[in-house]
Amino acid sequence: MEFDFVFIILAFLLISLGITYLIKRFTKNDTYYLISLIKSVKPLPFFDRMGKHHKFLDVFATIGIIFGFGAVAIDFLYGGKLPKIKRALLFIVSFFAMSSIIVFIDFALGNAFSNNVLIGSAYPLLVASFGLMGLSGFTLFSLMMQAWEIIGKYLLGIRSCPGVAPLIPGVKIPGVPITPPLHAWISLIIILIVHEGMHGILGRRHGFKIKSTGVILFGFLPIGAFVEPDEKAVNKAADEKVLPFLAAGPTANLAVMFLTGLLLFGAISLVNPITDSLYPGVQENFFSGVKVNSVLEETSFCGTIYQSSAFGNLESGDIITGVNGIPINTPNELFSEIQTNRFEEKTFSLKRNGELIDLTLQPNEMGQYGFVPEGIRNEGFEVPESYFTYGMIISLILEFIYWLVLLNFLIALINFLPMNPFDGGRMASILFVPYLGFLKKSKEEKKKIISKVFLYFILALFIINALPLFF
After folding, report:
1. pTM, to two decimals
2. Which site from 137, 142, 269, 363 is most exposed, i.e. has the minimal number of CB atoms within 10 Å?
3. Residues of 212-226 as b/e, b for ≥16 C-beta within 10 angstroms?
């Protein structure tokens, strides 16, 4: 698998080299090694029109700055002119208010963070990192935790999952549990256009001249988008104008993530009613039950082995008739019941060789029991041929929306990182300057120090987190 991955990467680089040469040779677009900037001025009038909505844009950008950098951002925006005691009180209140947000999100997602096997007892520190530095702190601490686990497992001779990886649609990357589908390129292009478009709009709102906008290609693949402001004007502008301009892109991604998340939730809620309307009785009669296909002795995740409570208790061929007294007739019903309070023990009602059995099993640290279920097809029920085409279309639509949600979140996270060339790198150099008042240096010198410290630290984290991709 590793050899195939390396071969794909080498072939991709060679093709990219050829494409970049052709762009440089036959167009007027700028190229940098394997990177090409495809520029356009056509969207600029749109930026001008949208940039006139000052009140909305100011609130939008402020929310993004706060979510991006937590209590540090609130201190910069509102605490600078307060007396020391009031400023300290504002910082403390802001810290706990931001921390409570991540606690609420964890609760709403069914304890996705607090019960996560990779986070474990470090959950309070993760909450504190978000309270202190928002999403930038959340991402930094996540990279630190994964780096610590990678180093610890390497010392024991165990290969862990990578903490960072290039998500190339259609390509399975070693050690990464998800593979983006090919159509994720469409999602990525939409996300990048929204990201850079909002940069352009906020730039115009604050009077920055936008020279051009366009798409960034790595060879022939779109990996980004950009707006080209007048850098001299941006560098001379007040920090209060530059911050909203920088925060605009990742904040737009968070907004789209939220909206598409609502759309995904609504679409999932409507699937069953729509299906029942178009194909009455199919969902209830497609399966006649659920059986155990196989039982695993243990499960593995990121180099760690977890025991299977189903091993020695369940048997291949067992028919699962209920979970905690709830009747089970389809794989979806089984999945739903298992995911409800997924870390609590559950009682499985089984039919084995005509005998009824009840078994109480405790899930492992991953919330898994270690068996593979399989739906029992109801051969006596005739399914319309168009139902399978309908199911494929519905699955494709839901998958497309899901990747819009996920990729928007990931793009926002990476762009809030306090490291150049990401948006968060320049934001951090502005936000942390007030804390270096003890240094007898100019403001620009302090910004350079902040940028270098974060750059070297995060680069080291990236290198450690990427090691399992290759070794």
Report:
1. 0.84
2. 269
3. bbbbbbbbeeeebbb
